[in-house]
Amino acid sequence: MTYSDIEQRRLFELSKEILNMSSETMAPEELAFDLREVIQYHEWRYYILNDPIISDYEYDQLFKKLESIENQYPSLISPDSPTHRISSDLTNQFSPVAHLAPMLSLGNSYNADDLIDFDGQIRRLNKMDDASPIVYAVEPKFDGGSIALVYEDDVLIRAATRGNGVQGDEITPNIKTLQTIPLRAKFSKYGIKKVELRGEALIRKDFFSKINEQRLAKGLSLFANPRNTATGGLRTKDPQDTASRSIEAFIYHLSYAETFDGSRYRHNKDSHFDIIDMIGALGFKVPNEQRKRCENIQQVIEFCNYWQEQRESYPYEIDGMVVKVDSLELQEKSGSTSHHPRWAIAFKFKAKQATTTLIDVEYQVGKIGSITPVAKVEPVQLAGVTVSSISLHNQDFITGKDIRLGDKVLIERAGDVIPYIVKSLPDLRNGGESEIQFPATCPVCATLLIRKGGEAAWRCPNYQCDAQVLQRLIHHVSKDAMNIDGFGKAYLERFYELGWVKNMADIYRLNYDQIAQLEGFGQKSADNLEAAIAKAKQNPIRRLLYSLSIHHLGKRVATILATEIEHVLDLKDWDLDRFTTIKDVGPVVAENIIEYFSDQSNIQLLVEMEDLGVNMHQLESDRPKVIQADAPFVNKSILFTGSLQTMGRKEAQRLAEEAGARNISAVSSKLDVLVVGENPGSKLKKAEALGTVKVLTEQEFLTEIGK
Ligand code: IVH
What we know:
The chain is of the alpha+beta class. The chain is about 35% helix and about 20% strand. Strand 13 and strand 14 (about 385-390) form a beta hairpin.
């Protein structure tokens, strides 16, 4: 089956409409009909095209809605309902084989309440009261392709994909190329003759990046994501291709085991967790520290929440946790529906991706006049927050991704990172979309925009542009600059509008009595502001230098310059030669500083600020710590890798610098010392291969610097 563009657009709109319905406004018959249609469409995008256009979360919401209608009105259940069918990834390129036990799906949960309900349901099913303990085994929910492996007489005889749950595609030759799957394993030691294991094939995130780097170098098309690369790799006709993708397999379930007399195998302990231990001991890859035996549902909730936070740091893609009743006996008593076991549930992490519509583009003017296009989108839930506005960075970003007004766009937010637009969805266009017209003039002061060669941004060249002035003021008071506590954007905008603050000097001549009278202020906040500003006047000059919004003058250059001058105005006598004698100060930033200090109005401003009490002299804290010639790491380059146990990375780097070292970021022949924390990874291997790098443990490093 395929869908026309018009159909796709209609089904997408319909999905969004159903998802946004706060209360059911449609007749149940109609809603059930629509839900079946859209769910079928999204399954097609997911399983057949491998290119979903809504998030898993949104799909699950649709699925749940349909389930709940069907529960409420059983007469509406139709034999073709997606709730009664296990979706299939069968292709006709391989021979189908029957699984020894059906491969079911999992029910989903999204929060603590859902997990508590799950626990309650297990109790009801098994007539257990609240006081009876239930132990759970919790594991990562791997986001790859599921596989089933059959061993007989200790030999791998067959491997298959999940297929429709009853039958899968036979992919034995491909699976045999995976290093993490033993071709032989001593099941006989446990009296097992024939066994079926379930697991997930997936690719480490960093290996995936490497594969794509190599493909790029070879001029091949790039893979979309680790998941598709793994599932695609299982299904290629060429086992060599499978082997080249660094696919690994984790085992998470024993679905069938038969002893030598043909009876069912029973493990000596009534525990799923112990079975996984046994499988691990037989040489299979199983999750270790990410797997936990939890004594009650509260512990399950804590563990799930912990991994929701840690998700990005895990080397493999996981989209949730799987919570399983640990007792095999209780599992059996709880049973299964046609769709999923009742003794297990997936706890899904908050979705990182969503789709929405681009409504409008606004243009923001930065402190040095850079124009940033910002997409206004229909608000959507993404990883737990509502997103309505997303940076489009610059004009090239828009044209490169062919993003148009009215487009459906796929957005993503990974970890704490701000949301970004992954791509537009041209399949869903209806012809009503229009090109984004980047403005030729500044949206605030109407000056003609300029774009310098080599720069990505268009800029407003008018230094007095209201937007720029205000942005510079906001930067001046910000945390990394003058750090004026409690003086944020909102205050500045208000004072700017009132005409009280037109330039930096005005900040230091505010009338606090007047401020106290202002609506929403009062004496207390005026006093707090006065104290914060008084404190900022005593700042070291590196903060002041950074606060001036000189293009390219970042915190590092500010810190270096502050050590070289007695007074801020000394810089007005510096020429290019004087600047370039300082290491780490390049000609571009030097030119910008010279330009700033040759402008009389800037000098005037600084003089006024000094008269108002702002410190312009180098302070003790501006001067660098003197490094003794015999410090342990003088003239040595150093790099930290792995997770450090007694200090953070920044702290370690600071200590190294105090001991004379220079921090660098990569392993190369220029590296002298590598300090390794836990799980050091590839940097250590590289350093060892070089043979010229001194490798220290964290403890040895601390000893060397005398801590
Ligand atoms: S247990 C009867 N455990 O999630 C046992 N499944 O949505 C059911 N999955 O098809 C599966 N990690 O591919 C289980 N630790 C884990 C899992 C896991 C990933 C996948 C599996 C399954 C899907 C269900």
